[in-house]
Amino acid sequence: MTSYAEFYRQSIDQRDNFWATQARLIDWQTPPEQVCDYS
């Protein structure tokens, strides 16, 4: 089991990878083409 602190640290240190992993857990009608938008 991953602790809150580990999730938080991953979301900061490897944010693109973290959010891509989280997005794969969702059943999308149309999957996103981009994970993060830094504009």
SSE order, one letter for each helix or strand:
HH
Count of DSSP strands:
0
Tell me the helix content: 40-55%
How much strand? under 5%
Shape: flat
The radius of gyration over CA amounts to 11 Å
Structure, briefly:
The chain has helices at residues 4-13, 15-24. By secondary structure, it is mostly helical.
Topology readout:
Elements: H1 4-13, H2 15-24
Helix pairs in contact: 1-2
Describe the structure.
It is a single chain. By secondary structure, the protein is mainly α. 51% of the residues lie in helices and 0% in strands. The protein is built from two helices and no strands. The longest helix has 10 residues, at 4-13. The radius of gyration is 11 Å and the shape is flat.
Give structural attributes:
39 residues; mainly alpha
